[in-house]
Amino acid sequence: MSPTEPATRQHAFTGPVLPQLPEPTHAERVRTLMSLVPFGTLSTLSRKHPGFPFGSLMPFALDSSGRPLFLISNMAMHTLNLKTDPRCSLFVGQLAADGDALGAARATLFGTAEPVPQNDIADAREKYLSRHENSRYWVNFADFSFFRLQPIDVYYVGGFGVMGWVEARDYEQAAPDPLAEAAPGILAHMNADHIDSMILLARAHVRFEATEATMTSVDRLGFSLRLKTNEGMKGTRINFPHEVVTPQQTRTVLVEMVRQARVGG
Questions:
Q1: What angle do CA 94, 100, 102 make, to 5 degrees?
Q2: CA distances from 72 to 52, 65, 152, 223 (A)
Q3: Cα separation of 20 and 163, whole Å?
Q4: Predicted local confidence at residue 14, as pLDDT
Q5: How far apart are CA 235 and CA 59, in angstroms?
Q6: Do both 76 and 135 map to the same domain?
Q7: How many domains does the chain have?
């Protein structure tokens, strides 16, 4: 699947249908989420209660294919479970900045978690310690070892009405969005200083008359707005006229979009 090919999904779009550039695929969104969130919930199959899932808080890192890496103790219950049956899932959720957990992105990776092969341990160690510096205190303990989750399927929920399955191959071939780390700063700046500009963009691009506007997400292809209108709260997406890959490019294109909206308005 092309990085810009539209994914088959349900979309919580409440405005008029307009021609748009494609959005990042679900696979890209999951890779982005996994690159930003360092903890998840690992569910293994319980040895004590066969057939029941056993949930554990699990720090993880990612290898070059996006496969989660765990540094776990041989004495831990989840490790004992995995040695009996390697089938598991890892749930990862985005922190909800506005307190609305159900509106935040989350993903579940299904697969098998087994010890990292000897030839890959050095790379796994480097990637894990770069994300979890405190692990240097126990990484050399004899009872700790690296496990790697090999996904066989992925389920993604991007918020209300945005969800779907992602094939493992598409996930592994996708890349995190280039604005992922800068996005919180971009959102904070726009929501603090440029509400009027977002109201103007909503009017120009999707014909919504809003009294309040909040930018809820931004990526290399566009951004999403939550709008307060006389008809209630509405959500919409507005695409950039071209792809951006840096915060400076994002600022430049937003300034130009606002300028054109003022001229056209």
A1: 70
A2: 21, 20, 21, 38
A3: 20
A4: 45
A5: 33
A6: yes
A7: 2
Note the helical H segments in the chain. 26-36, 77-84, 121-131, 168-173, 183-193, 195-206, 247-264
| Residue 16, in any domain of the structure | no
Token digits of residue 245: 């890959």
67, 150 Cβ separation under 8 angstroms: yes
Same domain, 38 and 169: yes
User: Which tokens sit at 138?
Assistant: 């126990």
Contacts of 141 (CB under 8 A, 6+ apart): 73
Percent of the chain, pLDDT > 90?
Answer: 83
Among 93, 81, 80, 89, CA closest to 111:
89
**Whole-structure pTM value:** 0.83
Q: State the CATH number of the domain containing residue 215.
A: 3.20.180.10
Domain termination residue (choose one: 173, 196, 223) = 173
Token pair in block for residue 255: 């300034």
Helix ranges (H only) for 40-181 are: 77-84, 121-131, 168-173
Contact (Cβ atoms closer than 8 angstroms) between residue 146 and residue 70: yes
Mean pLDDT of the chain: 90
Of the candidates 239, 245, 251, 254, the one whose C-alpha atom is nearest the C-alpha of residue 206 is: 239
